[in-house]
## 1
Amino acid sequence: MKINDLSRENLPRHIAVIMDGNGRWAKNRSMPRIHGHQVGMDSVRAVISTCAQVGVEYLSLYAFSVQNWLRPETEVRALMLLLKTFIQKEIDNLHRANIRVTTMGEIDRLPRDAYELARSGLEKTRDNTGMVLNIAWSYGGREEIVRAAKEIACKAARGELDPAAIDERCVARHLYTADMPDPDLLIRTSGEMRISNFLLWQIAYTEMYVTDVLWPDFREEETLRAIAEYQTRKRRFGRTDEQLSVNA
Ligand code: FPP
C-alpha cells in the first residue's frame, strides 16, 4: 500500500502509538537490545513522515514510561542518548515540515543536557501550525491522572474552583493533553494486548490496532495499513447502530 492509495476520508485526527518490540527484534538477531532501539528510531522517522503527509493532526508516541526508569542503567542511558540525538538531528527537519513538537510526562526528571535540548526543541517549533508530534517521555497514565487530581484539589482549596463544578471537561483540561482531541486510533506493535499505562483517561473510546510486527519493522506501509483498518471501523461511542444511522 502506498500513501496515494489511502482514502482521505475518515482519517484519524489523533494517532497514539505504543512502540514495542525493539528488544525482541534485536534478540532475534543476536544483537544487544539497544540496537533494536536504534533501528526503532528509523521507524519513528518513517511514522512521523507518513502521518504528516497523510494529514494526521496529532501523533503521540510512547517513547519512555515512568516505569522504564527501572530498566538496567545502561539501557536507560542509551535511551536518553537516543532522545538527545533525535532532537539534535531531527528538530530542523521537523521545523521545516511545520511540525510542532510537544512532550508529556515528567521531563524534569531527564538528565540536565537532555532536558535543556528537549526544552529548546519545543521552543523552536512552538508556533508551527502543522502536525503536533507529542512525545511521551517519563510518562505514566496513572501518574498523569494523580497530577491532575492534585492540581484540581489545590485550586479547590484556594477557592479558585467549586468542587461541585468538577466534571469530565475539568479533569481533561488538567491533563497533559488539555489542548488535544482524544486519540482516535491507538496502535500497539509486537502483539501484546495491553495498555501499559498509556493515556488511560484519553483512550476511553479509542479504536485499537494491535499488530505482531515489531517496532523496528513498522514503517510507512504498516502505518498506512493501520489507518486503512481504522477507516473500516464503525465507532458507536456507546450507542447502538440504529441510533447512529438515524443521526447520520
Ligand atoms: C519498547 O521496546 C520500546 C521502548 C521502551 C523505547 C522506545 C523508544 C524509541 C523507539 C526511541 C526513542 C524515541 C523517540 C521519539 C526519541 P522494548 O524494549 O520493550 O522491546 P521488548 O518488549 O521486545 O523487550
## 2
Amino acid sequence: MAVLVQKYGGTSVEGSERIRAVARRVAAARAAGNDVLVVVSAMGRTTDELLRLAREVSPDPSRRELDMLLTAGERISMALLAMALGDLGVPAISFTGSQSGILTDAGHGAARIVAVRPERLRRELERGRVVIVAGFQGVNPETKEITTLGRGGSDTTGVALAAALRADECQIYTDVDGVYTTDPRVVPEARKLDFISNDEMLELTASGAKVMMLRSIEVARRYDVPLWVRSSFTDAPGTLIGQEEKGMEQAIISGVTYALDDAKVTIHDLPDRIGEAARVFTALAKANINVDVIIQNVSAQGKADISFTAPEGDLPKITAVLTGLKDELQFASFDVDKDVAKVTLVGAGMKTYPGIAAKMFETLAANNINLEMISTSSIKISCVIRQEHAEKAV
Ligand code: ADP
Ligand code: ASP
Ligand code: MG
C-alpha cells in the first residue's frame, strides 16, 4: 500500500467544521487504499495567541516553558482530528512529537531534527489506523525536554516523517491552491505553478516566500521526497516540488519574492587593505549573524565603504560587534538603515538566458525605483530598494 503523509496548516484546522472537513479528506485518501499519516498545525492563530499570553504573564518567558506552552496548540488539533475520524468510522490515533520519535537537538524555539524513530507510527499504520502527529515539536533525547522547531515548523515535521517512512508522497494542505509566481495576496495576477524544482523553491523560500518553512524544502531535497502543495478547500491538483526534469524546457523565471525583515548596515571609510573585509565578516560570523547581500565601493583615498544586509533582529549584536572593531580596524563610522526591502527574481532558466538582469533593472527604473544593492547567483537576482516601494516592485 502507498504511504501518504498529509500536513494541514493552521487555517485548514481552524474550527470544528474545518476539522470535520479535514477528517473527510483523510478518510477519502484512506478509502482510496493508502496508509495515511497526518501532521497537524495548531488551530488558526493559536500559536500567536499563546505567545501573546506568555508575554502578558512574563516579559521574558523561560524558553523551556514557552515550548511546553506552544506545543499544546498542536495537541489540541491532533486530538480533535482523531475524534472526528472516529466519528466517520475511521480508526485513528494521535501522538505528540516525542511519542512519534521526532528527536531534536536541545535548541528551544528553533530545534533541529537530528533523527526520526518512527517504529510506533509504523506499527499503528500496519494495524490499519490513521496516525495523526502533532506538528512543530520533538524531544531532545539527552535532556528529555520538549522542543519546538520554529515558526512554520509543522511543514518540517511533515516532510521529515515522509522521509523517515519513505512515503510515496507528502502533501502540504494550506489556504492557497499551490505555489504561485509571487504571493497571491499581494499580487492578484500571480500565476499558480504546476511544477517547481527543489532548487528554485529553496531560493524562493530563502528570499521571502512564506508559503513553506525553508528547512522543510531542504529536507525534501536531501531525501528526495515528492512534495505537493495543495488547497485544503478545493480539489485542485496543486504544485509539485521536485527534481528538475532533464530535457524539459524550463520557464525562465519561476517567481518573485520580497523580504522586509533585513536591515542595511554601512561601514564608512574602512582602510582599503588586504584582509579588512575578512576581519569584519569573521567577527560577524562568530556572533552568529547571517549576512546576505554585500557591496564594497573603493574610493580614491585608499578607503572603502562596505554595506551589507542582515536580519533586523540582529542589529543589537551587529552594533556591539562593529563598535568593538572600530578602533582596531580604524574605520570612520557605521550606520544602520531599517527601511529597506529586498526583491528577488528566481528562475533556473535564467542561467542560460542573457538579459534578465537588464530587464529587471529597466523595469524597476521605469517605475522610479532606485537600486541600492544588487546580488546575483546562477538562478536568482536580488535588489535592495527602499521599503516603501516593495509591493510596487513585486
Ligand atoms: P499554513 O497555515 O497552511 O502553514 P501559511 O500561512 O504558512 O499556511 O502559508 C500559506 C500562505 O503563504 C498563503 O496564504 C500566501 O499568502 C503565502 N504565500 C507567500 N508567498 C507565496 C507564494 N509564492 N505562493 C503561494 N503562497 C504564498
Ligand atoms: N503552529 C506553528 C506556527 O504557527 C507551527 C506551524 O503552524 O507550522 O508557527
Ligand atoms: Mg505555514
